């Protein structure tokens, strides 16, 4: 549509800016010849931009491209000269006017080259962008598929612990597990979920851990958000690895254990803080998959919130502490 508008404006320009008394002239050039010249220029522009340049300008046929380009421009000169001799002979008497008759053929040829280069560059950038998007989606699918089995494995470990104790809380734990699995199956594969649903997921997980540890672990947590703040969207299961890590590695049997979880939103900025008691263990004693959850969430943060997040992690004075900030706006 833009091309149609521009060429229509060029072809009708004499009839828009001139008058019948002046024979619709643009300077000394008759309006009818100006319109015919516009059609010739359109042939030069589209002939080069969409045929000669993309087909022949390469290492094999570059010489043919030069030849055909010269023929195209010279051919336009011949057509214009024929029109002037037979229909508009007075124009030939003015040497200055002649320059404005034949010069545009070269100008439109050069414009067509620039246009073709710009179009090709845009297409290359779009292809790269599409390729990056495809790679991003593929990587995210892998990361999301990775986090679910890892999380389920740790949850089932908790349930085995309750079963061994023959705890009467096992049934309630299974119900909470079903809520967690429902979320991971129906929400995690999607693009985004609301912050409220993510918090409900965290609450279910914390309740499940309470059933397992009871009063053995001091747990403090706060997710007090307004209705508007709950409506913000977030990558599913983005926060749970930090909470899971706190319960998995923050529970000691020699010293009192504690876990503190805080989530708040202020002016479109979410702050998620998790602190827990921590007993350092030798590297050789760590499980091979102990860092899958945190490594996974780091990768997803870099993919989805590259310039919109900060993540601070430290483990000093037997305290493991993370602070994650996300910008929703």
UniProtKB/TrEMBL annotation:
Lineage per the UniProt record: Bacteria, Pseudomonadati, Bacteroidota, Cytophagia, Cytophagales
Pfam families in the cross-refs: His_kinase
Signal transduction histidine kinase internal region domain: residues covered: 138-216
Protein name per its UniProtKB record: Sensor histidine kinase
Gene3D superfamilies: Histidine kinase-like ATPase, C-terminal domain (3.30.565.10)
Transmembrane domains' residue ranges: 29-55, 62-85, 97-115
GO molecular function: phosphorelay sensor kinase activity
GO cellular component: membrane
Organism this protein belongs to: Adhaeribacter arboris
Keywords, ordered alphabetically: Kinase, Membrane, Transferase, Transmembrane, Transmembrane helix
